[in-house]
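task queued by scheduler; priority normal; single chain, no ligands, no partner chains; default sampling; output format set to structure tokens
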Amino acid sequence: MKFFTPYFILFLICSCTPGIPQPDKVKTESKMDPPQISILGAWMLTMDDEYTGQTFPEERLYFHKDGQLLVDGEDFLCGRYEVIGDQIQIIAPVKGQEISYFRKFILDQTGLHLKNIHKGFAHYEPMKGMVELCIPDEQWKLHAVGYFSFKVPQDWTFLGEAPKKDGIQEVQVMNPDASKLLLAVRLPVNMGYPQQEVIKITGEIASKLIQNTPMAGFQLKPAGVNNYFGITGTTFLAETKTPPLTLKVVIKRLQTSAVIIYVLYSSDLLMELENVAQLIYVDGVPVLSD
């Protein structure tokens, strides 16, 4: 059974597990002290118990140390994974939504064996050579308006207003099911403008952003870290557990402006919001700059 397609219907009834996926290593069961076997690397489909007497499709899997998963074959998948016990959790973008499902597996000296829904396993053997990467932003769309330049997934909504006469500008991006949102606000202030005033404005905008959500009334609190998404600045956080919602805010000071980045989401195991945030340019300067 192929890795991806037969599980498409299951996507709609499975939920994501909180947290950023981290790859793992699996040990074989033996009375001896066995060598450690890793799922990391490249794998090729060599046999499938559901295709007895039939030609099965070509398929290659690439498991990366940072949690990225590439499935290259009749179906293409660029997502993330996490090993949890004897199951692999697959997190993938499907029509702009973040979908998660689990698949049982066995990893032993003969290879990687993924459990099929109906019959037996799909069997993979390790491949030599480089572990190929899939780069999400290569298939993303570039948007430039006013002081901002953004790169976001093609099926996301982009709402960018032209700058106001005083130089203030807001840009918002959102995925199709509205479970992920990023708002960036530019304030035309120099480095000497009081930080407390910027923080005050940050809180006022946050209150308006969440006023029609289950987080309405929540107050931003200092996050206790010096950066979000690798963007160095002043950080704030607000969270709810039921339903699970997270609001992260980072204030980035530039020479002629302050940029406030808000990300509001229920789940982001694919790290799409992080990638969007890191690709923002303001006043021609990347927000990742020192």
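post-processing summary
- The mean pLDDT is 86.
- The chain is about 10% helix and 45% strand.
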